[in-house]
């Protein structure tokens, strides 16, 4: 596939590298321009382009930037995008750690629903609930017993089918959470966020959350706030807490 990636942080770079190794053609862009990506692009075999160019003639576009930076993407960037192009959103909202207060996002509480509204196109949420290190190093062959599962949500069935195939190629099992309105289940603060768990365990935890965001919002928001506070002062301790949660 011809894939465009907006964002050159850990996740964007990891996805670019892995997709190229799978034989896909990848263009990558960031807010600083193609010159800033020359070294990375050369190392992994990607094409460094502008944000406006990265969406042209693509089958899949991956938006992998901090939530606060979604607001600074060029207005109407996706307006002329063909309807069959799959747009993936990998972000997470960290209000106290990185992104600050975004009132509309705080009001809805569902990260990717807000992103979808900002971009003006349907998005598929995936790759937000795995650490970049796990994405790079922990992919496994299909049907391996402890293959990590990734949550996927979105409104377009055909787009999700494309994403399921890509997730599988990357070495992970895909689990369909539901519509983008259900994507809160894979946000920071939930029991499946950044836990390297298999498909059966992910399904069990997702089912345990139910379907009503209103029932879980207070608990998830409190957990996200506590996790952000821990990340600020002791990130290794936060990573250990994820591991302990997996084993519990």
Provide tags for this entry.
248 residues, Rossmann fold, six-stranded parallel beta sheet, two-stranded parallel sheet, 45% helix
Please outline the helices and strands.
Elements: E1 2-6, H1 10-21, E2 25-29, H2 38-44, E3 47-48, H3 51-54, E4 60-63, H4 67-70, E5 86-89, H5 95-99, H6 103-108, H7 111-119, E6 124-125, H8 132-137, E7 149-153, H9 157-170, E8 173-178, H10 199-208, H11 213-233, H12 235-247
Parallel strand pairs: 1-2, 1-4, 2-3, 4-5, 5-6, 7-8
Helix pairs in contact: 11-12
What report would you give on this structure?
The model has no long low-confidence stretch (mean pLDDT 93). It is globular and about 40 Å long. The chain starts with a strand and ends with a helix. Strand 1, helix 1 (10-21) and strand 2 (25-29) form a beta-alpha-beta unit. It has a single domain (66-247), classed as Rossmann fold, CATH 3.40.50. With 248 residues, the chain is α/β, with parallel strands linked by helices. It has twelve helices and eight strands. The strands form two sheets. The protein has a six-stranded parallel β-sheet, with helices on both faces. Helix 11 (213-233) crosses helix 12 (235-247).
């Amino acid at each position: 596939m011809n894939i465009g990636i907006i964002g050159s942080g850990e996740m964007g770079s990891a996805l670019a590298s892995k997709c190229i190794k799978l034989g896909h053609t990848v263009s990558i862009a960031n807010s600083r321009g193609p010159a800033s990506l020359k070294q990375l692009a050369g190392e992994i075999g990607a094409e460094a382009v502008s944000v406006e160019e990265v969406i042209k003639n693509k089958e899949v576009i991956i938006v992998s930037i901090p939530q606060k930076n979604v607001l600074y993407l060029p207005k109407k960037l996706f307006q002329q995008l063909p309807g069959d192009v799959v747009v993936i959103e990998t972000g997470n909202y960290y209000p106290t750690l990185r992104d600050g207060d975004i009132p509309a996002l705080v009001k809805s509480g569902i990260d990717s629903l807000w992103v979808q509204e900002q971009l003006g196109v349907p998005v598929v949420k995936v790759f937000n609930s795995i650490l970049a290190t796990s994405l790079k190093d922990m992919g496994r062959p299909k049907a391996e017993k402890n293959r990590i599962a990734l949550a996927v949500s979105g409104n377009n069935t055909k787009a999700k089918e494309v994403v399921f195939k890509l997730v599988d190629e990357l070495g992970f099992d895909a689990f369909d959470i539901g519509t983008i309105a259900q994507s809160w289940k894979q946000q920071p603060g939930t029991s499946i966020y950044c836990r390297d768990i298999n498909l059966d365990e992910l399904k069990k935890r997702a089912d345990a959350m139910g379907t009503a965001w209103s029932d879980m919002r207070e608990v998830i928001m409190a957990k996200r706030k506590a996790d952000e506070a821990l990340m600020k002062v002791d990130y290794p301790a936060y990573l250990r807490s994820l591991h302990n949660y997996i084993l519990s």
